[in-house]
């Protein structure tokens, strides 16, 4: 994908929604300890964009994660939605919060000194589809009538 295209996204519960002009060439993985702690992951997939390219349809809450930056999130379900410096014109949106994140690839690693190397190339790990975990699939069917995507 080259150039900008409108993409929608939001939080897990649907309370926060947005539309953003996304340039997939600005996708990257951040490995800094602040992002690791803010997301609970070993890294976070972001796409950088001008704040003016982000339209919040139903607003997020903002957490002052440091004296120089803040992070949008849903206070209802906890979904992390991005990162923004207090005084900058740009921000990041989390790739995982996009409605259709498939096909977006990272172009660089940021804070590479904090990379957890064993989590970078996981191509050799065994893969277990959700459909093969019949007990969990049945729990979803019993509770909602279907297995989530």
UniProtKB/TrEMBL annotation:
The keyword Iron does not apply. Pfam families: GFA (PF04828). Belongs to the Gfa family. Keywords: Lyase, Metal-binding, Zinc. SUPFAM superfamilies: Mss4-like. Residues 7-108 form the CENP-V/GFA domain. This is GFA family protein. The keyword Lyase applies. GO terms for molecular function: carbon-sulfur lyase activity; metal ion binding.
């Amino acid at each position: 994908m080259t150039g900008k295209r409108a993409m929608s996204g939001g939080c897990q519960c649907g309370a926060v929604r947005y539309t953003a002009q996304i340039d997939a060439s600005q996708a990257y993985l951040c490995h800094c300890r602040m992002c690791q702690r803010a997301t609970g992951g070993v890294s976070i997939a972001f796409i950088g964009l001008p704040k003016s390219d982000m339209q919040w349809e139903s607003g997020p809450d903002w957490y002052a994660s440091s004296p120089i930056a803040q992070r949008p999130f849903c206070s209802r379900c906890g979904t992390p939605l991005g990162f923004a410096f207090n005084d900058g014109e740009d921000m990041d949106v989390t790739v995982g919060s996009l409605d259709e994140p498939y096909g977006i690839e990272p172009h660089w690693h940021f804070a590479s000194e904090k990379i957890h190397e064993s989590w970078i190339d996981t191509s050799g790990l065994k893969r277990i589809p959700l459909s093969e975990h019949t007990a969990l699939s049945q729990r979803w069917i019993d509770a909602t009538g279907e297995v989530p995507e």
